[in-house]
């Protein structure tokens, strides 16, 4: 895996597309090897692991952790039979351990798309990981046995506005390629700083020390940004 990544010119590894905690032992072996070859290691997770497991992953070399919280406590309890406190605790602890953390909230019509539910997510986000940690509201599409209609763009835009009202500085809309809220805007002056299309970086307008060129606001980005 590591040889393949290096040969392909990748900058890192991301464990995704099913819950990566299921590959826990494999990652404990993989991450140190990847680190030794200069690759970063990322987890695209539901964040539902013990603190001990989280610590072991960080010690093995996990640099980034994306947690999809899947809504407010009542929706997560009802549809996942799970306690969303665990996800927020792990997000907070991972941040304390120096991991780059981003939160995703998949918005599903009739499940977790009420204003109250989205407000709870935003409130807990600020309490757990602060206003500088990015949050992404992503669109759901019907699959397998679940037939609710796809999330409307206007619902995602409503979630964006709620998050901004709660003081979140880096809010994104996901799974809607070409939407202007895929981009990063300066939280102070609103200037377009990083333009994206889907998963691709289109342009970056930041000073060498990662400040907004217009107003000087410092943008907390780790590592270098390169357009491929
Ligand atoms: Zn600015």
Can you give the mean pLDDT? Answer: 96
CATH superfamily caption of the largest domain: pyruvate-formate lyase- activating enzyme
Beginning-to-end CA distance, first to last residue: 22 Å
What is the CATH architecture assignment of the largest domain? Alpha-Beta Horseshoe
Please state roughly what percent of the residues sit in beta strands, choosing from under 5%, 5-15%, 15-25%, 25-35%, 35-45% or over 45%: 15-25%
Low-confidence segments:
none
What is the number of E strands? 9
Roughly how many Å is the radius of gyration? 18 Å
Q: What shape does the CA trace take?
A: globular
Distinct helical segment count = 7
CATH class of the largest domain, please? Alpha Beta
Described by strand count, sense and barrel closure, the largest sheet is: 6 strands, parallel
Strand arrangement, largest sheet?
1-2-3-4-5-6
Number of separate domains: 2
Class inferred from helices and paired strands: alpha/beta
* CATH T-level topology of the largest domain: pyruvate-formate lyase- activating enzyme
Give the SSE string. HEHEHEHHEHEHEEEE
Named once each, the bound ligands are: zinc ion
Q: What portion of residues is helical?
A: 25-40%
